[in-house]
Amino acid sequence: MLHDYLYLASQSPRRRELLTQLGVQYELLLADDDEDAEALEAILPGETPDDYVQRVCALKAEAALRRRERRALPDAPILTSDTTVCLGGTILGKPTDGPDAAAMLASLSGATHRVLTAVTVVSTVGMHHALSTSEVTFRPVDAAEIARYVDSGEPLGKAGAYGIQGRAAEFIERIQGSYSGIMGLPLFETAALLRQARLRF
User: Fold this and answer.
1) Residue whose C-alpha is closest to residue 145's, from 121, 165, 169, 127
2) Is 151 an active-site residue?
3) 48-99 pLDDT, tens per residue?
4) Residues 32, 50, 51, 82: which is the catalytic one?
5) Domain count, the chain
6) What is the pTM of this model?
7) How much is the pLDDT for 34?
8) Does residue 170 belong to any structural domain of this protein?
């Protein structure tokens, strides 16, 4: 059976834009107030960034599936995604505040880091996963530039304290990999998963 739409279990406006770019119809399937979405994102001791991002994405998918069943919603595929920035083996999550964001950006200055985006699609044909890995190189960024960027408010709520589609684009000397993956939803891998889930788009 072909599906005409999917459920997107993500608050990210970027992921909505990217699905629209693919021509995918979707409905939001967001967490209830009593769900502890943050708890899903806790890092386990000794966990590699690659294992972490895939595990969190799969947990989000399982939570979204329970949510759909609890709300007695019609059957349609569910898409979840999670993006992690890592420098060496260190995961740079969402900054807790301005100084934390500034420290993260200072560590990325003049260096190459990895952006990992995991995608999970749950449907009647099962649960399928993909992982997109990209490398991003920042030019050297001075303290005044970092302070201005942090003051803009853009780094808060973003893994690694920056968004490639925003003002931080001027810091990025080179990328190797998937631009849409760095934004939060790798379109090549996502389209393949959605075809497996028999979505029409």
Assistant:
1) 169
2) no
3) 999 999 999 999 999 999 999 999 999 999 999 999 999 999 999 999 999 9
4) 82
5) 1
6) 0.94
7) 83
8) yes
